[in-house]
Amino acid sequence: MVAPKKGKNASAQSKPGRSLALILIAIVALTGGMFASGHTTPRLGIDLAGGTSITLRAVPEAGQESAINKTNMDTAVEIMNRRVNGLGVSEAEVQTQGDRNIIVNIPKGTNSKEARQQVGTTAKLYFRPVLATELSGANATGTPSASETGGASDKATDKATDKATDKATDKATEGDKATDGDKASGTPSDSASASATSQGRAASDALKADPSPSATSSDGASPSPSASASGDDATAKLQQQYAALDCTDKNARAKAGDGAKPSEQTVACGQNSQGQWQKYILGAAAVDGTEVDEAEAVYNTQTAAGWTVTMKFTDKGSKKFADITGKLAQNQSPQNQFAIVLDNEVVSDPYVSQALTGGNAEISGSFDQEEAQSLANMLSYGALPLTFKEDSVTTVTAALGGEQLHAGLIAGAIGLALVVLYLLFYYRGLSFIAVCSLLVSAGLTYVIMALLGPTIGFALNLPAVCGAIVAIGITADSFIVYFERVRDEIREGRTLRPAVERAWPRARRTILVSDFVSFLAAAVLFVVTVGKVQGFAFTLGLTTLLDVVVVFLFTKPLLTLMARRKFFSSGHKWSGLDPKALGAKPPLRRTRRPSRPAAGPVDPKEA
Fold first, then answer.
1. d(Cα 558, Cα 569) in Å, to the nearest integer?
2. Pick from 4, 376, 450, 467: CA 20 to 30 A from residue 59's CA?
3. 3-state class (DSSP) for residue 369
């Protein structure tokens, strides 16, 4: 007889401690990460934590029914996300439902009236000239006093000159630049590279140097005079707002520019390419976002510009844009820049070196594809012929959510208790392995859900709790499949240790096929549904994957170790593996046939 070769399977069977050590390390690492992040409980959805759910329906303008499409709806979702985040709401959910509805779920602790006003109004996009800008927050330099009307002090001038020189260099190398869309772009602007004037000059000087025409009123009236002519009081007030503005504060960002009309100068916040917050003094709106005919993110293969954003203006917008860029091109940094302002936040501040008269423009810089597409979407939204109407507003109290969560936890506990009782009654000693596996699976599920909250924004809602309860049965089913395979081997007359190893390949195939079907169903459900049903599908898929991990790295190695214990290997009647109780047949043995006598001479009489 040839002895079986020792291979990979034999090695794995002989060292189950490695698998147990691996899953133990994973549990410790995930648990440590959970406590290190400070998020020790899963984030609760609006139906459990309480809050407000707003359903918005897209309504196109007359003759623009085709405007309701996936691209425009996705852009609207992105804008609304920015709005609710501007309110300091970090756990809001904004998502499409169907082809024309948007669901906004805002958790408790938020002013629901203000939130409804924010998400229910059409986005406002303007092009405003930049009068002054500087970093805001802990790293910001000091701003000149509002009383300095004749110019900055020597100290402020020195700081401003150094800062402007640095900014001009940065702008020349990697800043956003607006160029004529019909001409190649990508080379630094002469005006940007040569500019060395102060971006931090006295706010009063910046206000008086407003190069922009005021926005035309809706009734076609002539442009109003510069805001500096409206009086020293307005100028001083704007100076004070600019000096006090801290753009690193969410509340301050949300209130910056509140109440400012398009025809007025204002303050605003925005992030630079390094992710730092900057504050701005902006002139009156020169071009309205509705005058952008289309915007698109394209990869420029003709120059080294990489990803760029192209804009095409309407006839009216082309003339306004040519006028303002012609004036800005004569200035030095930062007053050769214009700010693209969406909902009072600067999303881009490109500079110009010449008048852009072709009706087309291109914004180039150190964009990647995602950044270019995001900016193009925001520019396009200003011209979307869409408005949104409230279809319904539902308020869920925290008390109701707590009751639902409490009921869900009770249902889960009852389901788990019934599964454990069944295992104890039917599998006896084997139930110890099953219960330990269930606890490991439950622990991993909890820790991962707690980590997914701050990581991807996963919120545990009531359908997700239902998915976790259903997963108890799926996980227990995997253990039962394996245990039954082992018991079948014992019924055939094998001892426990060989039975554990021989049963595993067949049980493994069955478990993988079963879990694959469950995961496929969860994946399809997640893709084709929206809203809270996705929470059920996500939880079901997650627990199905964890079931595979637990069975392979915990249940199988633990049963291998237990099979070496006398309690199980001897077939104790309480082990669940008693051969007599299972009706095991004795092993088949070959019986020796009686030997025949040797052949000899035959007696003729007998013949």
1. 14
2. 376
3. helix
Domain end, chosen from 389, 414, 438, is at 389
Categorize the per-residue pLDDT at 80 as very low, low, confident or very high, splitting at 50, 70 and 90.
confident
* Same structural domain, 310 and 381: yes
**pTM value surpassing 0.70:** no
Any idea what the Cα angle at residue 53 is, between residues 52 and 58, rounded to 5°?
135
Q: What would the two tokens of residue 206 be?
A: 């910046």
Is there a domain that residue 288 lies in?
A: yes
In a domain, 471, yes or no: yes
- Do residues 279 and 425 share a domain? no
**Which residue type sits at 245?**
L
User: How far is CA 364 from each of CA 47, 308, 359, 372, 459, rounded to the nearest angstrom?
Assistant: 44, 5, 17, 9, 38
- Furthest-apart CA pair in the chain: how many Å? 152
Last residue of a domain, one of 97, 118, 139: 118
Nearest to 360 by CA among 389, 322, 330: 322
Q: Whole-angstrom Cα distance, residue 425 to residue 9?
A: 33
Whole-angstrom distance, CA of residue 203 vs CA of residue 208: 9
**What three-state secondary structure class fits 185?**
coil
Reported as a single tens digit per residue, the pLDDT across 226-260 is 444 445 777 888 888 898 888 888 778 878 887 78
Are 309 and 411 contained in the same domain? no
Indicate if 555 and 451 belong to the same structural domain. yes
Q: For residue 322, what are the domain limits?
A: 122-389
Q: Map residue 308 onto helix, strand or coil.
A: strand
pLDDT in tens, 389-448: 888 887 777 666 677 778 877 887 888 888 889 888 888 888 899 899 999 999 999 999
β-strands 292-300, 306-313: how paired?
Answer: antiparallel
Q: Which two tokens mark 323?
A: 């006028």
What is the total count of domains within the chain? 3
Residues 413 and 361 in one domain: no
- Distance in angstroms (rounded) separating the CA atoms of residues 59 and 149: 49
